[in-house]
């Protein structure tokens, strides 16, 4: 049953919140020792007790899992880092505030790659999360905890954050729905920044309509975030059923290279047939700049990260290593506090911004980013929706991608839309090697309604 | 050899709240770390929102300097580690500053100079370190306080000029009501670049950071000017270095060499959108501009008939100029008001507010003008009123300082004086007209200065003439 199903059952008195919570905790008891999706968890009794007062609100007191880089006043917000092991924010993120106002409760905080840097949730300072479909495999990342919790049945729905694919790729690898909204649609207040110009909070859910419901709650302008768009909240659930008749779907040939393998390519063919069966039209398009998205993304995101993470200097926060002088203290604290992947990106970003290299790296990456945004805008002159696989492979094994570049390639299909700031969703698209394989749909800026409608139409026929 | 100086000046804007959050910006004397919030503390997940009031104050300065306000400017991050910088970067404007160009004219010994402004931008202040025996403590109250940085072209040619430029800038900033610009409080801070060139070729410049008083600006630049001239005179090379200034020892302190220069890795601040100053906004700011000091100075000369010199002294401080105009209104005479303010009030004016209310001074001046009290007694009363904090006219009546207006009483005193001073009377009759002065003096002494000397002199002439 999805979240909306649960809410309907609650409203019809077919079940009680206590039963729902017991069900979730039963599942947690069963799978959590293996999956390890959560870094912190509420006490079910507290949720039941507080839930009583929330019964009249839209979300009826249901618990929702929150990625641990999204600030919550009642749980630590560790970002999967030693630096924030004991950090408890003094304010809720806007998205959390809005979920609470709508009657949801925070179920717990989910694991992630440290500061959301990674595609496997192996880079958490608190150990990896495993894929509930196959515990030998990663759940994807960086929102691996959120995706695994929803896929395993431990959570009804979750919030993740997506910078270059961190909601969509784990959703794909775990076999659930994950949406990255238009940049600026969901306020970033309270989301611990990785790359500020790319970060977006998005829902990870069991169904497209759940995704639409959560988005309806968390989207909309917040004056505390200068980059949040001046859009009024919208109900994304009501218009889901319009269908895709007459819509044009573009499959970029760069998103279906031969290297994907016959099984994945066969699945893509199937998606195309389903679209056509539903009255849509499929055309092949080209997004030739796709191959430049990866270097541009890693330069821009790492540059921003190098500044965003500078505040972890040993003066405040969990890790502080005493040393003979300030510089030594900062160096020692950062050496101890950050994991390898974070250090790698800080160094890359620092280099990309250095005098003499700025234009060649950061500057050029920004120009590429602009071109990629134009490329999408042009594509959307021609088609309504762009589609393709979310990630080139299904879930890989823990430790399989020790080479960082191999790991980065896991996001090649999600990076371009992140750079362009357009919304994209991953829905379960079938199986490859017996593992979930995600279908990604991409829409023009602020066309979430259209995106969700397409996803909703396809969802039933792909399951 | 020619000295070339350029200045980088930081001005704290007198906004109620900080540049990117709603914490109070008035940190002076506040207990450490009491004016902070997640935004100015740079806590994870917090985001900056630009204070539009700070932009408006900055725009006033730009308009006053005749700078070209950029319709679109942008914020950048300046990256460096320091414990008083909680985010590990400062939000500033580098590639697209708020305004470019402009000039400021000022006088040195009556001679007019003009310095061109290169650019002007908005940025946030850092916190402060407090050094104790047990180590350094951090006070974040100042974090995020709005600053503008004004960068001049290298148009200044002596330490003295640098000082006078800064004074003129301070006067302007105070008139614009954008900053109190008190250097001792750090509201106005100055970094200076200086080079000495031989025969027109450009010299190597050195930088002196954190000059925190007008005196320090002049002395530090003087020391560096001398050092460079001395090096060049003996054929040595000036190295590109950065100094601090030890005011107590009167010495430059080497801070870093060229090799140690920071790479701040500036890049566009992704948490803020570009700052758009629409024409309408700019016009609204222009419409609310306070009177510029040079405009006011000219008006004082024209409207009140003051000498340019007196007008210049009065506009040095806007509060002084305001006070002068209030006194004019209270007493009705600009000449009197200027005289009293310049020669009396300024001697006592130490703090932020005038030593005596304009109304009280106006009343006293009117009393002198109408012959109710002598000028000498008025001045003495003024001093006492200021030191005791009492109303001067109350003191006048309490001490019976009002002039003797009764003609009969004055005549009685004069007759007494005539009777007591036969020698002077004889001298007068013998043709020594100045003897009258002596008699008037005697009568003044008898009345405790409460008599009108002119009146007395007439009465003496009448008495002596009639005999």
Walkthrough of the structure:
The complex is a heterodimer of chains A (463) and B (467). The two termini of chain A are 14 Å apart. Chain A folds into 2 domains: 1-287 and 368-463, Amidase signature (AS) domain (Amidase signature (AS) enzymes); 294-360, no CATH class. In chain A, α4 links the parallel β2 and β3 (105-110). In chain A, strands 1-3-2-4-6-5-10-11-9-7-8 form an 11-stranded mixed β-sheet, with helices on both faces. The model of chain A has no long low-confidence stretch (mean pLDDT 97). Chain A is of the alpha/beta class. The longest helix of chain A is centred in the last third of the chain and has 24 residues, at 359-382. Chain A contains 15 helices and 11 strands. The radius of gyration of chain B is 30 Å and the shape is elongated. Chain B starts with a strand and ends with a helix. Chain B folds into 3 domains: 2-283, no CATH class; 293-399, no CATH class; 407-466, Arc Repressor Mutant, subunit A. Helices cover 40% and strands 20% of the residues of chain B. Chain B is of the alpha+beta class and 467 residues long. In chain B, α14 crosses α15 (453-466). The chains are: A alpha/beta (463), B alpha+beta (467). Chain A binds chain B through residues 70-71, 77, 79, 84, 87, 89-91, 93, 188-193, 195-197, 223-227, 303-304, 306-307, 309-313, 315-316, 326-327, 330, 350, 353-355, 358, 362, and chain B through 38, 42-50, 77, 79, 81-83, 86-89, 136, 138, 263, 265-267, 270-273.
């Amino acid at each position: 049953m999805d979240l909306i199903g649960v809410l309907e059952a609650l409203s019809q008195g077919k079940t009680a919140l206590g039963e729902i919570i017991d069900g979730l905790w039963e599942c947690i008891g069963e799978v959590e020792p293996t999956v390890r999706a959560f870094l912190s968890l509420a006490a079910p009794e507290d949720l039941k007790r507080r839930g009583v007062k929330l019964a009249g609100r839209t979300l009826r007191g249901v618990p929702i899992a929150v990625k641990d880089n999204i600030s919550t006043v009642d749980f630590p917000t560790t970002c999967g880092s030693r630096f924030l092991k004991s950090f408890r924010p003094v304010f809720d993120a806007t998205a959390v505030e809005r979920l609470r106002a709508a009657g949801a409760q925070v179920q717990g905080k989910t694991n992630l790659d440290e500061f959301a840097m990674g595609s496997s949730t192996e880079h958490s300072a608190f150990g990896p999360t495993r894929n509930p479909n196959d515990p030998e495999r990663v759940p994807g990342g960086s929102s691996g905890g959120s995706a695994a919790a929803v896929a395993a049945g431990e959570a009804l729905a979750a919030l993740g954050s997506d910078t270059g694919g961190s909601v969509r790729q784990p959703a794909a690898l775990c076999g659930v729905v994950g949406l990255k909204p238009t940049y600026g649609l969901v306020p970033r207040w309270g989301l611990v920044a990785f790359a500020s110009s790319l970060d977006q909070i998005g829902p990870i859910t069991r169904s497209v309509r759940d995704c639409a419901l959560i988005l309806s709650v968390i989207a909309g302008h917040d004056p505390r975030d200068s980059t949040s768009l001046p859009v009024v909240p919208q109900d994304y659930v009501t218009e889901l059923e319009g269908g895709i008749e007459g819509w044009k779907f573009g499959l970029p040939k760069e998103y279906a290279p031969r290297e994907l393998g016959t099984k994945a390519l066969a699945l893509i063919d199937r998606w195309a047939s389903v679209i056509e069966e539903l009255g849509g039209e499929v055309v092949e398009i080209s997004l030739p700049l796709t191959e430049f998205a990866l270097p541009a993304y890693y330069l821009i995101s790492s540059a921003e990260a190098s500044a965003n993470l500078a505040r972890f200097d040993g003066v405040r926060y969990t890790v502080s290593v005493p040393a003979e002088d300030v510089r030594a203290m900062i160096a020692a604290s950062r050496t101890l506090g950050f994991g390898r992947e974070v250090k790698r990106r800080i160094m890359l970003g620092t280099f990309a911004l250095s005098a003499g290299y700025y234009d060649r790296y950061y500057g050029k990456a920004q120009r590429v980013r602009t071109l990629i945004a134009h490329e999408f805008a042009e594509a959307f002159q021609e088609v309504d929706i762009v589609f393709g696989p979310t990630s080139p492979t299904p879930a890989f094994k823990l430790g399989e991608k020790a080479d960082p570049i191999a790991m980065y390639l896991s996001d090649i299909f999600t990076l371009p839309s992140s750079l362009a700031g357009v919304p994209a969703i991953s829905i379960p698209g079938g199986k490859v090697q017996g593992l979930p394989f995600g279908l990604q749909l991409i829409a023009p800026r602020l066309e979430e309604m259209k995106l969700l409608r397409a996803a909703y139409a396809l969802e039933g026929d792909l399951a | 050899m020619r000295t070339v100086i350029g200045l980088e000046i930081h001005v704290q804007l007198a906004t109620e709240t900080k540049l990117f959050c709603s914490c109070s910006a008035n940190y002076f004397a506040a207990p450490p770390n009491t004016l902070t919030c997640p935004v100015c503390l740079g806590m994870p997940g917090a985001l900056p929102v630009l204070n539009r009031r700070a932009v408006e104050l900055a725009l006033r300065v730009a308009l006053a300097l005749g700078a070209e306000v950029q319709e679109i400017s942008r914020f950048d991050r300046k990256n460096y580690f320091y414990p008083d910088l909680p985010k590990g970067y400062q939000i500033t404007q580098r590639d697209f500053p708020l305004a470019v160009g402009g000039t400021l004219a000022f006088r040195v010994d009556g001679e007019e100079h003009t310095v061109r402004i290169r650019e002007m931008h908005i940025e946030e202040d850092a916190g402060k370190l407090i050094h104790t025996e047990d180590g350094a403590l951090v006070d974040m109250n100042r974090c995020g306080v709005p600053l503008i940085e004004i960068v001049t072209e290298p148009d200044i040619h002596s330490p003295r000029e640098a000082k006078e430029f800064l004074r003129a800038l301070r006067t302007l900033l105070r008139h614009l009501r954008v900053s109190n610009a008190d250097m001792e409080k750090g509201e106005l801070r100055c970094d200076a670049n200086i080079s000495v060139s031989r025969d027109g070729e450009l010299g190597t410049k050195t930088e002196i950071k954190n000059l925190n008083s007008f005196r320090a600006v002049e002395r530090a630049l003087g020391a560096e000017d001398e050092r460079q001239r001395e090096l060049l005179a003996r054929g040595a090379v000036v190295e590109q270095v950065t100094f601090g200034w030890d005011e107590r020892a009167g010495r430059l302190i080497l801070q870093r060499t060229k090799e140690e220069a920071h790479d701040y890795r500036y890049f566009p601040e992704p948490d803020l959108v570009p700052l758009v100053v629409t024409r309408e906004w700019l016009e609204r700011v222009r419409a609310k501009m306070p009177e510029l000091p040079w405009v006011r100075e000219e008006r004082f000369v024209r409207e009140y008939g003051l000498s340019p010199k007196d007008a210049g002294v009065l506009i040095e401080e806007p509060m002084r100029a305001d006070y002068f105009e209030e006194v004019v209104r209270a007493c009705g005479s600009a000449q009197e008001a200027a005289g009293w303010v310049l020669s009396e009030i300024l001697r006592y004016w130490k703090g932020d507010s005038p030593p005596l209310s304009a109304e009280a001074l106006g009343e006293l001046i009117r009393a002198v003008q109408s012959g109710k009290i002598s000028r000498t007694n008025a001045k003495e009363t003024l001093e006492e009123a200021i030191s005791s904090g009492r109303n001067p006219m109350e003191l006048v009546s309490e001490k019976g300082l009002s002039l003797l207006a009764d003609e009969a009483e004055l005549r009685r005193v004069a007759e007494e004086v005539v009777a007591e001073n036969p020698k002077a009377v004889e001298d007068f009759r013998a043709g020594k007209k100045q003897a009258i002065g002596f008699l008037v003096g005697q009568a003044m002494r008898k009345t405790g200065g409460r008599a009108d000397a002119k009146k007395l002199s007439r009465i003496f002439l009448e008495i002596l003439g009639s005999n």
